[in-house]
Specification:
There is one protein chain. Helix content is about 40%, strand content about 5%. It has about 120 residues and is mainly alpha-helical. It has one domain. It is extended and about 60 Å long.
Length: about 120
């Protein structure tokens, strides 16, 4: 870390130190409302009628890329069919089992409960 900071000292404005990981949870506020999501889709030039197909294609690309990384590293992947399972606890079990202290560990996929949008057609608008 010190080598990195010394090499990029002119661009470093501060440093954080502490635990080996930080977990952030939250909401992308700009996208968590109809106006924000509409604006983002407009900027991406995605029509509402095309959103379903567009998002499925994007999801598939992200999934394939992440699975390729995990597969090439020889690490386990799995689907979790229970959203109440602790992914952190499962990852720790895998780390302990395989003796991994840092680096790429595993990949889980799951369906999580979330807020969503509904689109209603309106010829008048």
């Amino acid at each position: 870390m010190n080598e990195f900071v010394q090499r990029h000292a002119s661009k470093v404005i501060g440093m954080l130190s502490g635990f080996d990981r930080i977990l952030f949870r939250g909401t992308l506020r700009r996208l968590a409302n109809v106006g924000g999501m509409s604006g983002w889709l407009w900027a991406k030039r995605v029509l509402l009628k095309d959103f379903g197909a567009w998002s499925e294609e994007l999801t598939q690309r992200v999934r394939e890329q992440s699975e390729n990384v995990i597969r090439s590293a020889g690490r386990p992947m799995g689907y979790l069919n229970d959203c109440s399972l602790s992914k952190e606890a499962l990852a720790r079990q895998i780390a302990d089992r395989d003796g991994i202290g840092n680096g790429l560990l595993c990949q889980f996929s799951a369906v999580e409960p979330c807020w969503s949008y509904d689109i209603h057609k309106s010829r008048a608008q």
